[in-house]
Amino acid sequence: KLNVGADAVQHGVEGLTYLLTESSKLMISETDFQDSIHVLGFSDELNKLLLQLYLDNRKEIRSILGELAPKLPSYHSLEWRLDVQLASRSLRQQIKPAVTIKLHLNQNEEQTAQVLQTDPSTLLHLIQQLEQALGEMKTNHCRRIVRNMK
Prior knowledge:
Blueprint: H1 6-26, H2 30-38, H3 44-68, E1 74-85, E2 96-107, E3 110-118, H4 120-137, H5 140-149
Antiparallel strand pairs: 1-2, 2-3
Helix pairs in contact: 1-3, 2-3
InterPro entries: COMM, Commd2
Protein name: COMD2 protein
Organism: Ibidorhyncha struthersii
């Protein structure tokens, strides 16, 4: 009926879907949306129809995108214990420390627990890596990326 190939229709639908989802993610204003689609070279009537489509559906699109986002576990509490083995039958004097961590997480309204065990040197390395990652989040480059992701 359209006298257009199936690939052209598919690409058109994918482009329209991308335009609406990205615009809804960023909650851009009417003028920004109009500026974005004006570059595409459509007629004024089609631009008005696209704007109306965006305004009518952006809240619904945002709610659907929120439902599709993965539900990651969140932190609830942490228990830890330091165990030290001072001697064994074969070795009279040895020091073998171990840190046991029980991490309580909330996921989908239910609590789960993960038990982890490591030696203190590995734990110190992990702490340094996490502190380094937090430090990198304070750089201007990462702030710009995070701001654009929201």
